[in-house]
């Protein structure tokens, strides 16, 4: 793993996220930014994929179960070469292929349409099951929000995955601690998250800083080495990470920056990028 | 009529899957703890590795089916019509319909003929719900022969298909060498000039009998079997309306949103024609033997006959 390379990549992806949401005048920057390192790690380090052949049969699959953070996924796919970075400005525009939530029919690199919370994980489980039935080697990854796991379907899927011992499945929970109506522990606490997944027969890996590539690297290595059980990576992250005024601020769950705010965000990211180039 | 061979279309579904499983290796079957009732047990016995019991979790089952379809399988997700179209409506819409995935939904125990289990399990709304999903094909076979043909047609069709089956044994009406099943093409079972009875599912048999009763009163009814609710056979409906001037829709489903509505929509726009919708009248069902309920809710030949006499 080349950490500096990943840090440079995630900085560009953050620019893509804020630019996309700014251009759309709508969207979800907070949860896209909290999972930016995760997206980057998956698409630049972990997944067996080929952007020139997005549908290749033996590719690893990724399902964005928390589909509202599509700007994070799109910015990553664009920077990985699936489609032009320039197109991120078309997010949520009429006649654009970049829909508000992931659309597998029209967006290169998107393996499953998602957005209605709780549903993506089931599709990911179905894909992992298919790999097992076909004795294929591909692995399946799915990212859930910590608020999303309030949906009952998540636990139906978890029960099935544990029961079927789908060790080619990795469920990642982005534990940024905030949902639309407030802190997750105030709205309807899903805590403890780790022991819930353990009770559903998952191998659980806690990551204390999900915005740190070194920790992500160790977690995914452990998940890959785990046999006989699906893995759940519960990662603590910072919502809005990387943009000072968005960090840990619930206001930025689902709103776009105005001109001034956008300029500040880009300036901050430019500075962060310059600092990385000094290294 | 005791010599007429009867079989429930849910049995036909199970038998067809077991048969097609030999031919199509990518066909897999999912259940939600109702394999005994959806009659997929034969498939399970023949192909244990291709039968997936998801437990009592229909929403997850639809999602798993979507994932399996996205990775190359042709899944038949089986459960009662109520839990497929009702409980898992949104999963079908968003995880299967929106990405247009190649999932087949085998919905058994549709309609009031569920019988003794009563209103909670009698789904009279599934056609209405499924009709609103873009790209969804809806098949409602009338007998064993048609049900088996529908299962294979569903397999061969690329995209989501909702198949509706019943619990009650129904007479075989399509055992003739000319029978052909084509998605979207209704079948004329009886010619007549005075009125058209367009029926679907188990009501097709009752419609034929009602037409025989009407004939004794000098009313010649054309009977058409509309096995495909979506896409609806516009051509046959308009042609029938032109020919007979009046149309009656008969279905074991709410009069809101099913076959009657589909026909009304076609005719209201293209050829305004007097229509009578016979079905469940915006009420919930109740417990009782299926045959008694079908009579009580006016869906047997006698009930259809009386309503048509009044309508004429």
What does this structure look like?
The complex is a heterodimer of chains A (279) and B (312). With 279 residues, chain A is α/β, with parallel strands linked by helices. Chain A has one domain (3-278): Thiamin diphosphate (ThDP)-binding fold, Pyr/PP domains (Rossmann fold), CATH 3.40.50. Chain A is built from ten helices and seven strands. Chain A has helices at 3-24, 29-34, 36-46, 70-80, 120-133, 152-163, 184-188, 193-199, 213-225, 259-278; strands spanning 61-64, 140-145, 169-175, 178-179, 182-183, 203-207, 231-236. In chain A, strand 4 (178-179) and strand 5 form a beta hairpin. The two termini of chain A are 16 Å apart. Chain B is α/β, with parallel strands linked by helices and 312 residues long. Chain B folds into two domains: 6-171, Rossmann fold, CATH 3.40.50; 187-311, Rossmann fold. In chain B, the strands form three sheets. A seven-stranded mixed β-sheet of chain B has the order 3-2-4-5-7-6-12, with helices on both faces. In chain B, strands 9-11-10-13-14 form a five-stranded mixed β-sheet, sandwiched between helices. A two-stranded antiparallel ribbon of chain B has the order 1-8. Chain B is globular. The mean pLDDT of chain B is 97. At the A-B interface, helix 5 and helix 6 of A face helix 4 and helix 6 of B.
